[in-house]
Write a structure and sequence with these properties.
The chain has helices at residues 20-23, 28-38, 52-62, 81-89, 128-138, and strands at residues 2-8, 42-48, 68-72, 94-98, 120-123. It is of the alpha/beta class. The protein has a five-stranded parallel β-sheet, sandwiched between helices. The longest helix is centred in the first third of the chain and has 11 residues, at 28-38.
Length: 139
């Protein structure tokens, strides 16, 4: 059974509450339950952290033994060389995901420090971006 971590960064604990026109009105915990039901043959784990160091610690924790990480690093995508370095340091493939199409948003959101170290990037499909991230790790 594949082990995949879904790792969410800052402010994503507020999904379903914050900026619904961008992020939708479903909270992530209920969406995660849907994902577990949809992928019964995958050992899915969910972790959310608002702090950069905690995200890095979680990447280090699973990054040498698990089958994949689906990462939405939130705003750290556009600022964190440290998270990019953590992704580069581990063997586990990481798929970068975003709920919104960041290329349709502010210019500062259009650059990712993480993308060069990730297996791929999925964005703009709402919460389905996570579903597609899981599927890409199953290939």
């Amino acid at each position: 059974m594949k082990k995949i971590l879904i790792l969410n960064g800052p402010n994503l604990n507020l999904l379903g509450v914050r900026e619904k026109s961008i992020y939708g009105d479903q909270d992530f915990v209920s969406f995660f339950e849907e994902l577990k039901a949809e992928f019964p043959d995958v050992d899915l784990t969910y972790f959310q952290a608002n702090g950069e160091g905690t995200i890095i610690d979680e990447i280090h924790k699973v990054g040498f033994e698990w089958d994949g990480i689906v990462l939405n690093a939130g705003a750290y995508t556009h600022t964190s060389i440290a998270i990019a370095d953590a992704i580069a340091a581990v063997n586990t493939p990481v798929v970068e995901v975003h709920i919104s199409n960041v290329h349709q948003r502010e210019s500062f959101r259009q650059h990712s420090y993480l993308s060069p170290n990730c297996k791929g990037v999925i964005l703009g499909f709402g919460l389905n971006s996570y579903r597609l991230g899981i599927l890409s790790l199953m290939l």
